[in-house]
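As a warm-up, study this chain.
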Amino acid sequence: MNKKFFALIGVILMLITASAQAADIAIQDNRATADYWTGKNKPGEAVFVATDDLDRLNLQIMQKSANTLVDLAKYPDKVYTQWMKNKITATIEIGKFQGAEVPKLFKNGTALTEFSYAQAKKNTGVDELPAVSEVRYALTINRTNLRLLPEDAGWFESADDKHYDQLQATVLDPCEPLAVLVNSKDNQFVFVDSRCYAGWVKSSELAFTDKATWLKYAAPKSYLTVLASRKTIPQGKAYYQMGGKVLLRADDLQKDGTWAITMPTVDANGTIVEQAYNIPNDNAVVKGALACSENNLIRQAFRFLGEDYGWGGLDKGVDCSAFVQDVYRSVGIELPRDTGKQEKVMTRSISLKGMTHAQRLEIIKKAKPGSLLFAPGHVMLYLGNDANGEPLVIHALSSYYTLNDGQVAKHYVRKVLVSDLHFVGSDKNEMIDRISSVGNF
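Now compare it with the structure written out below.
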């Protein structure tokens, strides 16, 4: 056997070892089931926010969201230069693309060039905005990417990365109402405000309509909420994530036990065509929203268990903040999209900054199941304490680290999983010692 063979065997063993280490973080026994946690939390069936109080709570969350949550039904009919410039500039800054220096990113497998970088920013037209723009009204017709710059091609941190596109803001469900502000210079994209994020969407992904039709979706009076982690609706490749809203044509079930719904498609001119469908009344949907209880939050979180991590909704998955946003939305609570904003809108929040390990552990163990645990760049849903008194969480995790003789090794997980709080971050600290706050409603 030659040296190349032994080298190949060595690489394979390293990969197997890394995979085994990565698998160690995920709890696989009965603690990785919703029944384990709901069975331990009998009082958790009680509703902690009544349906009649959800509008008030969501208004409070919106007011604390630093303008990232938008009441589309009250959106102005006209917007002015500074308004649009502020929105577009803030979106550019999310990706840290405001500087002149070309970021160390890769496009199509090669280093991003100064020309590509400049062209993408120029395509926003941020320095050539009209004095006033009449707001246009559109609905997404498929699952649609929302971008930080008007560009299709991904910008990645390495030449071979395909998962962490730095231009990806979030993903929008079908039937998402959008306030359309301005076209990109190449007219391929439009800059939009959605219910929880502003950014660039391809024009071809939208159906344009009048305001009255649009308002039916922006402020629906009768709708279904998707409870499954994802649900395909009979409209080609379109599918919804948990928490998505589907417009009802009739308030009550049909005689055949189905729900009558309306979904938008688009004609050759890009104009909306509403189509009628009937879908089963199964456990994938509920009229209105699910009862807002701790145990329903836990049951909904476990619907994602084992599914892929998806940066900004890529790979048909969820990242950590989309995961908790979807879970909470299914019980009627509208959270901002990004972790930092979510942390700031909690009604009840306990800061753990400056606390010892023991103090942190004491507070976390007393938290309500369904509470959110925030750390820099990450959020987790707290499940409770297991039979040994160990606090466990469920979360969408990209990666974690291990330490070996002072050396830090990164392990990609890219799954929704249950774990304890002892896994290590890039700063060599356990997650429990990185948590900044515990929040709930």
